[in-house]
Amino acid sequence: MDKYLNFYNNYTKNFDFNSKGIKVKYEHSLKVYENSLDFIKNNNFSENDNELIKFIALFHDIGRFEQYEKYNTFNDNISIDHGKLGCDIVR
Question: Could you give the CA distance from residue 52 to residue 49 in angstroms, rounded to a whole number?
């Protein structure tokens, strides 16, 4: 299993998948990741670029999980900046 996908699944398993928002965000990020694999396959990027593309695709919304769990919204204006939170999570 890809190291990013392994981290993603280990991180997200701590959230309530009975929550529609969590489930939707999980599936969305996996779909973006799958699309990135097709993008990589159909282009001639360096291995470093391939790794970066996969990383960005999978983790672009990683902050949304905690945001939704705490605030029951994906709206940054009334909760927390999910991008900054996502950077803190992947660090």
Answer: 5
The count of residues in the chain is 91
**Encoding tokens for residue 7?**
């981290």
- Domain extents in the chain: 17-90
What is the rounded distance in angstroms from the CA atom of residue 4 to the CA atom of residue 61?
Answer: 14
How many CB atoms neighbour CB 22 within 10 A? 17
Helices in 14-60 by DSSP H: which ranges?
20-41, 47-59
Q: Over its length of 91 residues, how does the chain's per-residue pLDDT go in tens digits?
A: 688 999 999 999 999 999 999 999 999 999 999 999 999 999 999 999 999 999 999 999 999 999 999 999 999 999 999 999 999 998 9
pTM: 0.90
**Is the CB of residue 35 less than 8 Å from the CB of residue 57?**
yes
